[in-house]
Amino acid sequence: MDLTYVPLYAILVSLVAVIPILLSSNRPNLREFWTILAAVIKFGLVLTLLPSAVRGETIVFDIIEIAPNVPLQLTADPFGVFFAVIASGLWIFTSFYSIGYMRGAGEKKQTRYFASFAVCLSSTIGIAFSGNLLTFVIFYEILTLATYPLVIHKENKEAIAGGRQYLAYTLTAGLMLVAAAALTYYLTGTMDFTPGGVFGGLDISAPMMLIVFLLFLGGVGVKAGIMPIHSWLPTAMVAPTPVSALLHAVAVVKSGVFGVIRVVGFIFGSEAMTAYSLNEILIVIAGITILCASLLAFRQDNLKRRLAYSTVGHLSYIVLGAALITPLGMTGGIMHIAAHATMKITLFFCAGAIYVNLHKQDISDLNGIAKVMPWTMGAFVVGSMGLAGIPPLNGFVSKWYLAIGSLEGGMLIPVLILVISGLLNVGYFFPIIWRAYFKKGGPELEKYGEASPFMVVPIMVTAALSVIFGLFPDLFFNFYELASNISNSIFNGGM
Amino acid sequence: MIETHLPAIISLNFLVFSVIIPLFGVWKRELCQPLASLGTGISSVFSVYGFIYYLNDIPLRYLFGGWEPPVGIEFVYDGLSAFVIMVINVIAFFVLIHSRQVAVNEFPHKQMAYYSVAMLLMLGFNGMVLTGDLFNLFVFLEIASLSMYALIAIGDRAAPFSAFRYLIIGTTGGTLYLLGVGFLYTVTGTLNIIDMAPMLPEFAGNTAVITAVVLMVVGIGTKAALFPMHGWLPDSYTYAASSSSALIAPIGTKVAAYVLIRIMLYLFGIELIDLVVPISYIVGLLACIGILYGSIMAIAQNEMKRMLAYSSISQIGYIIMGISLANPYGFIGALLHILNHAVMKACLFMVAANLRQKEGHSDITRFDHSYRRKYPWTMFSFATAAISMVGLPPLAGFFSKWYLVLGTVEADNWLFLAVILVSSLLNAVYFFRVLEKVYMKNPDADEQIPDHVGEKDEVPPSMLYSTSILAVGLFLIGIFNVAIVTVIMNMIPSGF
Fold first, then answer.
1. Are B224 and B141 in contact (CB under 8 A)?
2. Is ipTM > 0.85 here?
3. How confident is the model at residue B186 (pLDDT cuts 50, 70, 90)?
4. How many CB atoms are closer than 10 A to CB B403?
5. Is A192 in a helix, a strand, or coil?
6. How far apart are CA A27 and CA A35, in angstroms?
């Protein structure tokens, strides 16, 4: 089967779906049918790319020349497919969940919501399959734009302020990325993502390298939520919960960390990273972010904000994995993209289910809710323990590789950071679980039951996935094999 | 056969129509607009045809009546002039189509004069672009300027005053240019650009030549609204009739920028320009200040047309900065931005005109979320053009910015790079401010106001189609920019 066009189709399918979604704005069921259909087709298309990716093959397709000698290039390499599988797979669950949430919460302008969501997914898959920096920038900016209507969905003061902050951060980041891409093109003559980097063996002055690196870091780092440029992320939690779930746990922030790994592994490469001590900068930033974000998470009483800070911390696990510049560290970082995605989406789904069902957003109000929503809270326990890195959940696997990776690089401090952060994770998740299970709730809880099946089923599935992938990382999608392939290709210059 | 006469046909066609329009206009006033559109349409078709026909050809030197220069008048039809001619004529065509209802609404009794003068304006612009003679350029510059003063004076009560102000400043600029041409003539003894160019290196360092460069750059800079000679622009664009500002804003300053390219890069060449004083760098710095100044002032405006006017000052800065970089990427960026900005600004001014037509004002503070219901396509066009102005892919604006960024990187000019990036953010501020108003319910507003107010109530088709076609054009230019860039690359002047 000829797979050349599949990446393009995978991008287009949700973009095309926007048209029927907009046209059937008066018939919600039909509209949602289009969303689900697009999600399933997209996932199917991405899956057809999986076998060749596991074999380490790369499918390259130039859509059009977008600048002289620079094609708008789609490259389905193992890393791209890995990310695309996660994003498109979780979109299906989010679509079902969105239906339950948006109807349950009685949100307005659902057509705009579902249309923007579809565009977001197109651009996320575009980011995954970007073969060069310019293509990446283009999809990255489209993602920014398409997310904006979702962030401001509620159209109240808070949402508008959040939207402005989001735009201010991400547009600045986009511009830095443009500058970084231009500099890369000027210095190396290419913008292609090449395993092992394009900066190797070039004689470039250290300040120049530092500037390029910092521009890149600003460009992809904003979406990756590294400190101190993370603060848009908690603010953007004003968006409806499925948006927070998919976009701020999977699509947007993961595009950021995906970008970090692309930049570190496919633009700079291990040689340039260590030669100019750029990896040390990244390790320090990631370490500080992990610890600070975990500590800040304690202070948040709003459940979604606490989750947001947790996201900030966990994204830096992935950044740390890239920064270690060791094969196992990189493997761990890449694995954590998948691990964090399934777990964090579970947690956000839970938060949303609680909000729609009980209209509660604050942790201090969650007393005794496990009695009312046993399934949801059960999933919450799985997700939060996974994030804390407790075996056999999938957060443990990635963390294990991260720890081994840092030892492999002869570094102890990252291991220490990981351990402390694990404890902090337990620390900020445990009060929620404790309140839900062991504190007595108010009498008003009795009239409520579990949330709608549209929400509970996706929650259960993603929670189950967290367990399954913890036990068998290679089941279904060969996540481990892919991750170690990718990291091999980065460090051994090809397969 | 017709190909060899294209330069004359394209430009003189406007002269013919400027006479025909009053003749028919006296009989029936309604005929003015269709005739003007027809005239511009004919020239547009020929300029597109000529652009394609002469794509890979050597420059065509057209001698009027077969008289050789210095006696005769010469038009030079090369890649650069063919490109710019095509851009301005096609944009003018859409603007004139669009102007039908605006004219009826805003200046019903002055239509005949308006359209006739508009044809003269186009004649002036076309002449400026095509001529191969520095003095002729001045003549066409004055034709265009005088028509511009007249067009601007048709408008609000404040319009004649702003036109008068422009007249004073513009005439000063024109005179400075003429003075510069005089200096060059005394030194070289010719006025023909192609003849003069090879002679100038002999006079490198000659005080008269240096003075001439400065005078000409300042003079044309005034016409291009280069900071700090921009003072005439905001008032003129704001108070002129909507169709006048839509006609002048996208192409007026571009033609001046084109003349700047001709003078700086083709006539003198960048080495000669920078021999004694780093003129190109100074011009670039002024462009930078203009970019930032225009963007910041645009943020402070509440009147949409005024905001767009300040935005024009900023955008012309991009073009002039690209010229001043004097490297291939800067040149590509500048020329691509001439096209992109012409399309974007025309589209945006048309949106302003549409709103004035329907709402009677274009005051941003009074915009509300009913517009997205009432004028979906107008607002879609606005959003597209605005996002393109901010420079987000895959719209056209992103790509001119991309080439400009590459140009600054290649020139190692970090200051200019920073200015481009900061200005993009400032653009985002003033455009998203409007988008927020239009697409979002005002959170301070009375809760009782329903979410969906107003029924679809779009402007008439002539306005709607021209606005939306330009907006869609921005997508196409963006995605297929390589086709244009390849053409531009053939025009890159030697010596880069």
1. no
2. yes
3. very high
4. 26
5. strand
6. 13
Is the per-residue pLDDT at A1 higher than 70? Answer: no
Instruction: Answer yes or no: do B393 and A67 touch at CB < 8 A.
Output: no
Per-residue pLDDT tens over the stretch A154-167: 888 888 888 899 99
Closest-CA residue to B131 (of B5, B8, B265): B8
- Give me A474's structure tokens: 């290679």
pLDDT per position as a tens digit, A383-429? 888 888 887 778 888 888 888 888 888 888 888 888 898 889 888 88
Record the tokens describing residue A291, joined without a space.
């610890």
From the list A144, A155, A174, the residue facing B441 with the nearest CB is A155
The C-alpha of A381 sits at a distance from chain B's nearest C-alpha, in angstroms, of 38
Mapped onto helix, strand or coil, the DSSP state of residue A254 is helix
Cα A394 to Cα A10, A387, A473, B72, B231: the distances in Å are: 27, 8, 8, 84, 64
Confidence of residue A495 (pLDDT cuts 50, 70, 90): very low
Residues of B in contact with A178 (CB under 8 A): 401-402, 405, 421
Residues A224 and A282: beta-carbon distance below 8 Å: no
pLDDT for position A63 = 83
Of B440, B479, B481, which is closest to A160 when you measure between CB atoms? B440
Q: Strand, helix or coil at B63?
A: strand
Rounded distance, CA B460 to CA A462, Å?
A: 52
- A55 exposure class (CB count in 10 Å sphere: 0-12, 13-18, 19+): exposed
- Banded model confidence at residue A494, pLDDT cuts 50, 70, 90: very low
Contact A234/A309 with Cβ under 8 angstroms? yes
CA of A223 vs chain B CAs: smallest distance (Å)? 17
| pLDDT of B1 over the 70 cut | no
Instruction: Compute the distance between CA of residue A240 and CA of residue A70 in angstroms, rounded to an integer.
Output: 38
Query: For residue B423, is pLDDT > 60?
Result: yes
**The pLDDT of residue B148:** 92
Beta bridge partner(s), residue A132: A192
Peptide bond preceding B228 in cis form (omega within 30 of 0) = yes
B425–A175 CB contact, under 8 Å: yes
**Chain B residues with CB inside 8 Å of A109's CB?**
451
- Are B351 and B99 in contact, with CB atoms under 8 Å apart? no
Q: Domain spans of chain B? A: 281-496
**Chain B residue with the nearest C-alpha to that of A144:** B392
Token pair, residue B488, equals: 């531009």
Phi-psi region of B62 (alpha: psi -120 to 50; beta: other; left: phi over 0): beta
Is residue A239 within 8 Å of A151, Cβ to Cβ?
A: yes
Residues B125-136 have pLDDT tens digits of 999 999 988 999
CA gap B457, A309 in Å, rounded = 46
Q: Is the Cβ–Cβ distance between B315 and B397 less than 8 Å? A: no
Q: Are strands A59-67 and A70-76 parallel, antiparallel or unpaired?
A: antiparallel
H or E, element range at B76: strand B74-77
pLDDT band at B449 (very low <50, low <70, confident <90, very high): low
Q: Which residue has the tokens 């612009």?
A: B125
Interface of A with B (CB under 8 A): 64-68, 108-109, 134, 137-138, 141-142, 144-145, 149, 152, 155-157, 160, 163-164, 167-168, 171-172, 174-176, 178-179, 182-183, 185-186
CB–CB contact A167 B436 (8 Å): no
Chain A residues in contact with B443 by the CB 8 A cut-off are 155-157, 160
**8 Å CB contact of B399 and A67:** yes
Q: Decide: A410 and A341 in contact? Cβ < 8 Å.
A: no
